[in-house]
Specification:
Radius of gyration: 13 Å
Helix content: under 10%
Number of strands: 11
Strand content: over 45%
Number of helices: 0
Structural class: mainly beta
């Protein structure tokens, strides 16, 4: 079965950095477009916010709020997608979800990122 496992979320101070990872299994990872979404505290599940994506060919796209601070990348050998987050702000606090999309969409369980002093 398909499994996406996120890791790397933790409590960090404003201005700090984190790198999230999402390890995939059960899919042909290289053909999937991969993405990161986030759900802020108190927001409903259908209010997940797009953060960043990377296509199977490596084309990236970012939400305006994170452009220049976050970088998405992928390692097809390790079947893992990463999200490097720099210059973190309090408003980046959320549960971050990994998404895999190719004909069907799959989601991970999420990893909590908290930005607070």
């Amino acid at each position: 079965q398909v499994e996406l496992v996120e890791s790397g979320g933790e409590l960090v101070q404003p201005g700090g950095s984190l790198r999230l990872s999402c390890a995939a299994s059960g899919i042909i990872f290289s053909v999937f477009d991969m993405g990161w979404y986030r759900q802020a505290p108190g927001k409903e599940r259908d209010k997940r916010e797009f953060v960043a994506s990377i296509t199977q060919s490596g084309i990236t796209n970012y939400a305006g709020s994170v452009k220049g601070r976050f970088t998405i990348s992928r390692d097809n050998v390790k079947r893992t997608v990463y999200l490097q987050m720099n210059g973190l702000r309090a408003e980046d606090t959320a549960v971050y979800y990994c998404n895999a999309n190719y004909r069907s969409a799959y989601w991970g369980q999420g990893t909590q990122v908290t930005v607070s002093s």
